[in-house]
Each structure stands twice: as structure tokens, then as C-alpha cells.
Design a protein that fits this description.
The complex is a heterodimer of chains A (about 210) and B (about 270). Chain A is mainly alpha-helical and about 210 residues long. In chain A, about 75% of the residues lie in helices and about 0% in strands. In chain A, helix 1 crosses helix 2, helix 1 packs across helix 6 and helix 5 packs across helix 6. Chain A is extended and about 65 Å long. The relative contact order of chain A is 0.06. The model of chain A has no long low-confidence stretch (mean pLDDT about 95). Chain B has a single domain, classed as Rossmann fold. Chain B contains twelve helices and six strands. A six-stranded parallel beta sheet of chain B has the order 3-2-1-4-5-6, sandwiched between helices. Chain B is elongated. The model of chain B has no long low-confidence stretch (mean pLDDT about 95). Classes of the chains: A mainly alpha (about 210), B alpha/beta (about 270). Chains A and B meet through helix 2, helix 4 and helix 6 of A and helix 2, helix 4, helix 6, helix 9 and helix 10 of B.
Chain lengths: ~210, ~270
């Protein structure tokens, strides 16, 4: 019974949202407002039950882990701009967050992204099948000319200009592929909703 | 008025209607267009096939209802393959809604193969913290996973006790809709612990993952609904991804026609001026 009610609510809200394609209307606005309200409520619950309670208060209250007081105090400092005399205290949590984030991002991006990606461009262009050589050359040339496009210390003239122009072509092809995939994604979402309406709601698909 | 001028002023709602029909009709009257298997999908399938029985596969449900249409079919097809191969599934999620959604598929398919919760599969639930959580997870699972999704202590289950660190995980499959997701698994988890990573992503994200396949950081990718349809074909599962492929193809053809006609009209109008 609950499942059926859920399906009906989902189906009617889906139709209400799609009704916007005809023109803006009352049902669309109702559905939009419900979505905003439910999202806000949902995130409030997630932030408390998945972040704050298990990571901060639960260790303190249930396990008497008094070290948890440190992040609680530092976290509360984020609100100090509300008290002008103590507003300077916000620097402590901000610098801590910046420092940790930077350390994490820099080390892992270098180790997990930049170096392996750089390594992946060191490709053999001899002793391979014709198709592999062509593919590898495309990757190597693509990387070099795209990087040349982003080299701004010298005017893009002559060979540099030619390489930069070629870089633009490589990027355009990449953007085209991305756009194609984006269209595919949007169509997939529509298929998902239509499938739900025909299968789960109307039951005309088996 | 000439046809070309009529097309220039066509009501956009007619285009919406045509797209809707192009989706609905093939769903009601399937044409069974072939689904070709691409190498990145075949590579994931081969990897799962190569794992010894009872290996532990971590399935990370990093999506929410907004991308359910693309990633839920991939979740179903991948879980079906894992259970058929008698692998153990350890589910976790970097997005709050992911493990709740994927739990439906997990229980449904586990029941089909008579799998026991806690022994053959487990759902550790949503774990916040992104990259920091992933680094801790690989070092010592107990630091970040204390209970399963229902709040039961994780070490009360045999599978919960079996997964202590990254070394116990044979493969990670991230079903990723954004950030945190596949990029975090690659740059933080794989870079630090070397565990093989495979992914299913939304179609929008798919092109960004191909460099990671070239570099060997990713085993393969199920890109959008098409990738899920390919996997369904490989595991011989009649799912909704394959069912949606006819509509996908017809809409793509329709959009190509729209673009072509739109350009013809534009050129005509420019010449007329």
C-alpha cells in the first residue's frame, strides 16, 4: 500500500515538473517548492545524523572521548564573526581547513593524477601495429599542442601559432565528445522517467 | 509561407512532443537494436571473471536519485555478475542517498542467488568525509566503518571482520555521479593503496575518465545508460538499460535531424538577408 502511494506521488510530481515544458503553471510551482523544501529537510537530517552526531557528539557523549572537544571548539570558532570582538578567531579554523585541504590535494593530485597522466603520454611509436602507432601519435601530439595553446609567455605566431591552432582543434573535438555524452545523459534521464511512468505507475511495460 | 520559413518559427513544444514520442514508442514497441560491447566494458567484465571465488568486491554507491536512471541499471547488472561469480560484496557510499538506493538492488539480487547478509554481502552505508575518509578506509577500515547501514556493529558480521584494510579488497567498483566519486577513488585510494578500480559513471562524466583508462589507473568504465546496457548484455540480464537503448538511439537520430534542419534554416535565413 505504502509503495503504491509512493509511486503515485512520484508519478504525479514527475508530470507536474514536465508540465513546465508546455508552460509555467501552478502544478509545476507546487512540485518545485516541494522539491526545495524536501531537499532542505533531507540535508538537515543528513548533516546531523551522518556528520555531526557520529563524528563529534557521539564520541563525546557515549564514549567520553574528550579529544572531540577540540574539533567542537574549533568548529564553533567559525561563528565568531557574529561577535565583532572575537571575530579574529575565525582565522584558526580557516587556516586549519586550508592547510589540511592543500596538503591533501597537492600531494595526492601529484601522486595520483599528474605523474600517472604524464607517464601515460610516454608512449612507444615504433615496433607496434600501425593502428597503435597512429593512436599513440595522436595522444602525444594532442597533449603537446594543447599545452602549447596554454603557453602565454610568447605570442602565438609561426610554429607556435600553428601548434596552438591545432591544440584548439583537439580541444574542440574533446568538447564535442563531451557535449555528445551530455546529450546522451539527458536523454537517459528522460528515458528513466518515462520507463518509471510506463512500468511502475501504469504497468504497461513488463 | 514556405516550409523552410515555417520550420524557422516552429513551436518548440512540437519538438518536445517529438522527443517524447521517440522515447515512448520504442519502449512500447521494442525494435531490439543491437548493443555493441566496447572494450572498457568488456575489460570490467573480464576482471570480474578473473577474480577467485569469495574475493571481496567493494561497490561504492556514489550517486543519488537524480542520476538513478543511469546508474541503477549498472548497479543491478554489476551485482548480478558478482553474485553469479560467488564473490562477496561490500557496499559503501560516498553520497548519502546512494547506499539506500543501491540497497534495493543488493537485497533483491542477493536473494535471487540465496546469499546471506553479513556473510556474502554487507551494506556499510553512507560514509562522509570524501578523500580523508578514503585514505583512512584503506589504512584501517575500522576507523571509518563501525556499523552497517542499519546501525548494527560491523564486526558482528563475518564479512565485516574480513575487510580490515585495502589489501583485503580485490576490486573497487564505484558507481559515480560526481564529486566525491571516481576521481577520489583513483587519485586518493588507488594512488595510495594500488587497489584496482572500475567505474560506472553518468554519461556526462564518461569522457573525463578515458585518460585514466589509458594510464591504467582505471580498469574500465560503464558510461551512462549505454554502458549499463552493454554490461546487461554481457551478463545476459534483461534489464531496463537494454530496454531503453532503442529509445536512446531513436532520440539521437531525431536530434541529429533537428541539428541538420536547424542549420539549413539558419543558412537559408542568412542568404536571404
Amino acid at each position: 500500500m505504502l509503495n503504491t502511494i509512493g509511486i503515485w506521488i512520484a508519478a504525479l510530481l514527475t508530470l507536474a515538473i514536465y508540465s513546465f515544458l508546455y508552460k509555467d503553471n501552478f502544478f509545476y510551482k507546487i512540485a518545485e517548492n516541494i522539491f526545495v523544501g524536501v531537499s532542505a529537510g533531507y540535508w538537515a537530517v543528513v548533516l546531523w545524523f551522518d556528520y555531526t552526531w557520529p563524528n563529534l557528539f557521539e564520541p563525546l557523549v557515549r564514549r567520553h572521548d574528550y579529544l572531540s572537544l577540540v574539533p567542537i571548539i574549533v568548529g564553533l570558532m567559525m561563528f565568531t564573526p557574529l561577535i565583532p570582538k572575537a571575530s579574529w578567531l575565525i582565522r584558526i579554523p580557516l587556516t586549519f581547513t586550508m592547510g589540511v585541504s592543500m596538503a591533501l590535494v597537492v600531494t595526492q593530485r601529484v601522486q595520483g593524477d599528474i605523474f600517472p597522466q604524464l607517464q601515460a603520454t610516454f608512449l612507444p611509436i615504433a615496433g607496434q601495429s600501425f593502428l597503435t602507432i597512429v593512436t599513440n601519435l595522436l595522444i602525444i601530439i594532442g597533449v603537446v599542442v594543447t599545452l602549447v595553446y596554454f603557453y602565454f609567455s610568447k605570442e602565438h605566431k609561426g610554429i607556435l601559432g600553428l601548434a596552438a591552432k591545432l591544440g584548439v582543434w583537439f580541444m574542440m573535438i574533446a568538447f564535442g565528445a563531451s557535449f555528445g555524452y551530455t546529450v546522451m545523459a539527458r536523454v537517459s534521464l528522460l528515458i528513466g522517467r518515462v520507463y518509471f511512468l510506463l512500468h511502475n505507475w501504469l504497468g504497461v511495460l513488463r | 509561407m514556405k516550409l523552410i520559413e515555417r520550420l524557422a518559427h516552429i513551436d518548440r513544444r512540437i519538438l518536445f512532443l517529438l522527443v517524447a514520442l521517440a522515447v515512448i514508442i520504442p519502449l512500447l514497441v521494442p525494435m531490439g537494436l543491437p548493443v555493441d560491447i566496447t572494450k572498457p566494458v568488456q575489460d570490467i567484465y573480464n576482471m570480474v571473471e578473473s577474480l577467485p571465488e569469495r574475493s571481496i568486491v567493494v561497490v561504492s554507491a556514489d550517486y543519488d536519485p537524480g542520476t538513478e536512471a543511469e546508474l541503477y541499471p549498472a548497479t543491478e547488472a554489476f551485482l548480478e555478475h558478482c553474485f553469479r561469480r560467488n564473490l562477496r560484496v561490500y557496499m559503501i557510499g560516498l553520497w548519502p542517498g546512494g547506499t539506500t538506493l543501491a540497497n534495493i538492488a543488493l537485497n533483491e539480487i542477493a536473494q535471487k542467488y540465496n546469499k546471506v547478509y553479513g556473510l556474502d554481502y554487507i551494506n556499510a552505508g553512507y560514509k562522509p568525509g570524501g578523500q580523508v575518509m578514503l585514505l583512512s578506509l584503506g589504512r584501517n577500515v575500522a576507523d571509518v566503518v563501525r556499523t552497517d547501514h542499519a546501525g548494527v556493529p560491523i564486526d558482528s558480521f563475518p564479512l565485516g571482520r574480513a575487510v580490515k584494510a585495502a589489501r583485503d579488497m580485490s576490486l573497487i567498483m564505484t558507481l559515480s555521479a560526481g564529486d566525491p566519486g571516481v576521481l577520489h577513488w583513483i587519485t586518493y585510494f588507488r594512488a595510495r593503496y594500488g587497489t584496482p578500480i572500475a567505474c560506472a559513471t553518468t554519461a556526462i562524466m564518461a569522457p573525463q575518465q578515458y585518460p585514466y583508462i589509458s594510464s591504467g589507473q582505471l580498469i574500465g568504465i560503464l558510461g551512462g545508460l549505454k554502458g549499463a546496457a552493454e554490461y546487461e548484455t554481457l551478463v545476459k540480464r534483461k534489464g531496463r538499460a537494454v530496454a531503453g537503448m532503442d529509445s536512446q538511439s531513436i532520440v539521437h537520430i531525431l536530434l541529429v535531424i533537428f541539428i541538420a534542419v536547424g542549420n539549413v534554416v539558419l543558412i537559408y535565413q542568412k542568404r536571404k538577408k
